[in-house]
Amino acid sequence: MRHFTIIILLFSTSIFFGQKKYPTKYFRNPLDIKTILAGTFGELRGNHFHAGLDIKTQEKEGLNVFAAADGYVSRIKVALWGYGKVIYVTHPNGYTTVYAHLSKFGKGIEEYVKAIQYKKESYETGNIFLKPNQISVKKGDVIAYSGSTGGFVAPHLHYEIRDTKTEKIINPLLFGVKVKDTIAPKIKGLFVYPLVDSSRVNQSIKKSLLAFKSVGNNTYTTNRITANGPIGFGVQVTDQLNGAYNKNGIYSLEMIVNGHKVYHHELETFSFAESKYINLLIDYENYARFKNRFQKTYKEKASKLKIYKELLNDGIVSIKTGFDYRVEIIAADFEGNKTIIRIPVKGIQSNTVFRKEKDTTAYKIIANRFNKFKQNGVSVAFPKNTFYNDLYLDFKVKNNIAEIHNTRIALDKNYTLTFDVSKYSEDEKNQLYIAGINNKKYPSYQNTRKKDDTFFTTTKTLGNYTLLSDKQKPTVLLSNFKNKQWITKYSEIIVKIEDKKSGIKSYRATLDGEWILMEYNLKTKQLIYQFKDKKLVGSKHLLEIEVEDNVGNTNTLSATFYKKE
Questions:
Q1: 400 with 467: CB under 8 angstroms?
Q2: Which domains does the chain have, with CATH numbers?
Q3: H helix or E strand, kind and range, residue 115
Q4: pTM over 0.70
Q5: How confident is residue 353, by pLDDT bands cut at 50, 70 and 90?
Q6: What is the 3-state secondary structure (H, E, C) of 29-96?
Q7: What is the pLDDT of residues 425-448, one digit of tens each?
């Protein structure tokens, strides 16, 4: 007997969006080389969806980056992290293109930005907003050069298209960017989840990893499973494009049960505010433990994602005793290459009784309330709706280490972690900071705010934290020349800076007493100054650099060099 039953209650959701038509010939490609992608739009990243295309630049920096269409430069930003050097161009058709991780800006724009940096005496600029009549560009103008700024990234161009009014990001492939892709997505893993206490899968209350085999034509099947009650599925799936070995994201995911579409999402567009709900789309506990991402084919109730095209009962399949079900999960890339996995399910009433171990602690979280707990000089304060569900929190403080549950729970908001430091002397306080020690080999500095006898930080990650001391000064070393050396033919100064404890907070460099712009390369730990920025007077010059770490330790380099113009 074959039967399809999905209970549709008032709270069930069915969403249908017609994909908007986008102009496919308005924008040109931002680079003049073959488009090969290192990252796709909507790809699953740490705590967010990837907001654009990562276009390979042949492992080089300095390639011409072209304005995709006529418009004006509406925003510029230079930052050590994130997008690094980034430029935004607003176009008259209602869209804005974004070009990130640049090495430098184009003629006129570069000089404009450097003037601001010298005025602020800062490498980082914050957002620079421009008016429509300040810097106009034509389609095909060189507006920048590709690079790898913005953290520990390889050379590439991050390219976005946004709706100018709403700031929603849209898949650039919908605007006619052509990428060769004849390879179907690859399904690497499949989970089935019992979703309520009474649900069973193969007589178990635990999620099960299902084995599957190929039956040809990018189609796979599992052995028949038995189940009862509401269940859901999750797949680990990636896509590979021609000419690259990168494991990219897919474009759409569907689930069909007995011929009826139950679940469908597409990566057409999303807002930055939605992006954090990736942690509800994936099996977050599995990701936290094993660093692989299984995408659920059902919607968690707390999710506010709008990527869903069709949902029936939130993609939850209610298995009834005595009925058979044909489940098909279909993963597709933008070009329509598909991979299908089929799961036969038989509804069988389970007589096995499982008793879950009672989950109780002294710290019960009520998700929709403010929750605060304190123990042994450490307190944690969670704003309401920090957690997606109620739970009993594991919280203990031992040997000055605060153990706050575990890292396998996703949070919606930051919470505040506070340490009482009244037992420390003022000198000791000056050198202390809060550190995350989930990776004990590499403790991570947490932005530590100090107020009298309390230190506090805000974080979105559960796990282990403690107070560490940093008594070491940062290191500041000349890299490409020696003190009192003639460097007439040199085009730049390179200095290496590093702090192995709390990390570098700031640096300031002067040449002959005047501030100079030294660009900080996080990957190489180098500060670089270009001599073309400033005309030197005389032949003897004094370079001074002061570097401060995150607890206030400072170190100063003073060096003399000789150079004739």
A1: yes
A2: 37-175 (2.70.70.10), 186-347 (no CATH), 364-469 (2.60.220.30), 475-562 (2.60.40.1220)
A3: helix 109-120
A4: yes
A5: low
A6: CCCCCCCCEEECCCCEECCEECCCEEEECCCCCCCEEECCCCEEEEEEEECCCCCCEEEEEECCCCEE
A7: 999 999 999 999 998 788 999 999
Q: Are residues 305 and 295 in contact, defined by beta-carbon separation less than 8 angstroms?
A: no
Non-local (6+) Cβ contacts of 336 within 8 A are none
CB neighbour list of residue 207: distance below 8 Å, 6 or more residues apart: 191, 192, 193, 194, 201
On the question of pLDDT at 4 being above 90, the answer is: no
| Contact in structure between 201 and 231 (CB atoms under 8 Å) | yes
Q: Which two tokens stand for residue 153?
A: 């990234």
Other beta carbons less than 10 A from residue 177's beta carbon:
22
The string of pLDDT tens digits covering residues 168-179 is 999 999 999 999
pLDDT digits (tens, 9 = 90+) for 37-77: 999 999 999 999 999 999 999 999 999 999 999 999 999 99
More confident residue, 24 or 564: 24
Tokens describing residue 216: 């040809």
Whole-angstrom Cα distance, residue 260 to residue 258? Answer: 6
Find the mean pLDDT for residues 197-204.
94
Phi-psi region of 51 (alpha: psi -120 to 50; beta: other; left: phi over 0): alpha
Separation CA 7–CA 15 (nearest Å): 16
Q: What does DSSP assign to residue 394?
A: P
> pLDDT above 70 covers what percent of the chain?
95
CA neighbor of 102 nearest in space, from 146, 167, 64: 146
342 exposure class (CB count in 10 Å sphere: 0-12, 13-18, 19+): middle
Enumerate the β-bridge partners of residue 540. Answer: 562
Burial of 107 (C-beta count, 10 Å sphere; 0-12/13-18/19+): exposed
The pLDDT of residue 497 is: 98
